[in-house]
Amino acid sequence: MAKKRLYLIDATAFCYRAFYALSSLSTSFGQPTNAVYGFLNILNKILKEEKPEYLACCFDISRDTFRQKKFAAYKMQRPAMPDGLTSQIPLIKEIVRAYGIKILEKEGFEADDIIATLARQAKAENFSVTIVSSDKDILQLTAEDISVFNPTKENGFTYDVNKVKERFGVLPEFIPDIIALMGDDADNIPGVPGIGEKTAVELIKSAGSLKKLLSGIEELKQEKLKASLLANKDQIMLSQELAILDDKVELGLAIDDLKISSPDYTELARIFKYLEFRKFLKELPVSTLSSPQEQIKLSEFKAGQLKENPREAFFLADPAGNLVFSFDREFFQSAEPGPELKSILEDSRVKKIGHDLKKLKIILAGRGIKLAGLYFDTMIAGYLLNQSKASFDLADLALDYLGQTPVLEELNPAAALDLIIKLKPELEKLLQEKQLIKLFSEVEMPLVDVLAKMELAGIKIDLKALKELGSYLEKRLIKLIEDIYAASGTQFNINSTKQLREVLFEKLKLPVIKKGKTGPSTDEEVLNKLAKSHPLPQFLLEYRQLMKLKTTYVDALPELVDPRTGLIHASFNQTGTETGRLSSSNPNLQNLPIKTDIGAKIRQAVVAKDDQSLLLACDYSQIELRILAHISGDENMISAFCAGKDIHKATAALIYGISEAEVNDQMRDVAKRVNFGIVYGLSAFGLAKDLNIPSDQAQAFIDAYFARYPKVKEYIENSIKACEKDGFVMTILNRRRYIPEINNRNQAIRGFAQRQAVNTPIQGSASDLIKLAMIEIDKAIERDDFKSQMLIQIHDELVFNLKEKEAKDFCALVKDKMENVLKLRVPVLVSMKKGANWLEAE
């Protein structure tokens, strides 16, 4: 009969390892979670793959153990547990308990001693033991029926007695002897100066044990080694004592007490909800997660069922494209909406409530139905309440606002619609409480309709031009590959980071600028620095840029053309950024480079829809600086904009203390970089790097800037203070962005949060402004029956398909709405350009 197996996890060690190995993870309210997440991955790996019946998690309880009493400097070099980890340990213990797993810890002892005691005790009770640890000193416990599993190595690695002997050349019980000689930096065990692992292993193997080595020191032939051992004999004995694990800790329990009890899935769900661990939530048994679904009667909608149109209606399209909807708590479905339902859908007086109404509007447009009266979108409401969330799908909102954890795949359409019905009043109440209802109803909800129309309008692409550009890029890339091979003196896989490292740093001996987890970095910053001393990095930079443009746009755009319309229908995402800006996908228009020759040629391939049309590109001029002037109230900046001055020239004149007439191009460029850099939290170090000047000179520029624009400095300081106090910042229209990291003890994380606190009100207000303009332009298009269409929104630019016969009136309309929709303390200016394609309109 197979022996029962006990698993013992060195929990504290894995908590530390996960904390430092994973980048800064935290919840939307600022609770660090990287250690919890990493530890959970290891625990789940054990639970799923090994399916243990007996398991315990062993923790250190404090630094004050019997080893400190023997040697005060033991582990002294280790810093105190960081705050970010301290706050996670109780959460990890809550999770372990909820899994039905025993937690063991004892004052005066380390987790390793508890593991040693339990391993000895379990073996005596005829158990097999697997210790889960990555520490070297734990290997001394390896014996028949006791193995050590290290899950951090690729696919994990198990040490038995033979594997330990293979690795160290000695049996496991002699590991403390080796540590006694070589010491252990991690635990501050002194060992013998000058003796490393190789020498320590050879000495123990040769002598047979540390005891025999020390009793026979005089027989050693190497005088230097002999002297060193004699001089450090007491230290060696102390080091061995520190390294030996205590396997006789009084724990007062039997191994049977370590049997895993039934997990409390309700408690696990609660903790995972709190930590925003959707991945782990989804892995819990569905029956424990989903709230009992009401038995909702879903009827096929028939004509004549409604005596009069409802005031509001809830709608959802199911995965098959059927319409599921509810009037007055009655639930219906319809595969093909008839005239009566069509009239309700197109009636703007009936308030439409749903989740992702833009998607529903586009689906219905394909059936010849113009969905009107978009009133409340739970996805948009969830986004406005906390733009920092990773996801705004129905399951996430049900989790956050209803305390339910539905699995979307398990929800029938009626139950999903029922969630929307329950969410609406909860979200509406919170929007009111946080003074976001006006922004929601007057900006974000009308914008849903506008974006749907833009997606339906589509973009025309000159496929022939793209094909020619693709051929041109092929030739350029072939030539670049030849240049790369010539400059490197060898052929290699250019897309292999490993091979590129070997060429750059081993073959060519170029200096290592910075290192990542897997070796020297070859990122853009590194290649730009290396390009000053060798031609290869410059070729590599150009190769990467051209390859990215080719695959992302030149090759991909033709594949995105809808065969039914002959157009590309990009998606404009309203919930994709934390600042309120729109993002786009299929294709991502925001990332299309403007200043490169290939980027320009790609824009040239975006063309007007017909011979009677042009593309009209309308771009806000320096809008973020104008908003900075408005919200800071700085008199010098306001007067410069109001006087119609070139703001960069005006800033240069102030910084250098000269007249504007004396400002040359180089001075203007410095001022431009400072102007825009200040908005993004530019430091003296960053400016020095950007301009390739000394840091003290860069600091002088920044000091001069703040001396001339004192209220900008006040705005920056006040934004950071307000965010530290409230946990969020706001735009002109009260859009909120929560920045919990603003009070993080880690200076780098806190610094990044401070830059976000300064930039978000500016960038978010620019976003609010262009959204308002889009809404007003759309209203005018509908009202005056313009045939011109809004096609693209990218950064601070709007692109239209302009009917030439409407050009004068339509251009006047767009300019008026964009410049006057929101009154600032400074004039808002828009540059407008027309052309047969997007490039000519640049």
Précis, in short:
The protein is α/β, with parallel strands linked by helices.
What is the secondary structure topology, with strand pairs?
Layout: E1 5-10, H1 11-21, H2 34-50, E2 54-58, H3 66-70, H4 83-86, H5 89-98, E3 102-104, H6 111-124, E4 128-132, E5 146-150, E6 157-159, H7 161-168, H8 175-182, H9 197-207, H10 210-215, H11 223-231, H12 233-243, H13 265-274, H14 278-283, H15 286-289, E7 298-300, E8 312-317, E9 323-327, E10 330-334, H16 339-346, E11 351-354, H17 357-365, E12 374-377, H18 378-385, H19 394-402, H20 413-433, H21 437-457, E13 460-461, H22 463-488, H23 497-507, H24 524-530, H25 535-554, H26 556-559, E14 561-562, E15 567-568, E16 571-573, E17 583-585, H27 597-604, E18 606-607, E19 613-620, H28 623-632, H29 635-642, H30 647-656, H31 665-679, H32 684-691, H33 695-708, H34 710-726, E20 728-730, E21 736-738, H35 747-784, E22 789-794, E23 797-803, H36 807-820, E24 830-835
Parallel strand pairs: 1-2, 1-4, 2-3, 4-5, 7-10, 8-11, 11-12
Antiparallel strand pairs: 5-6, 8-9, 9-10, 13-18, 14-15, 16-17, 19-23, 19-24, 20-21, 22-23
Helix pairs in contact: 1-2, 2-5, 5-13, 8-9, 8-12, 17-21, 18-20, 19-20, 21-35, 22-25, 24-25, 28-34, 28-35, 30-31, 30-33, 32-33, 33-34, 34-35, 35-36
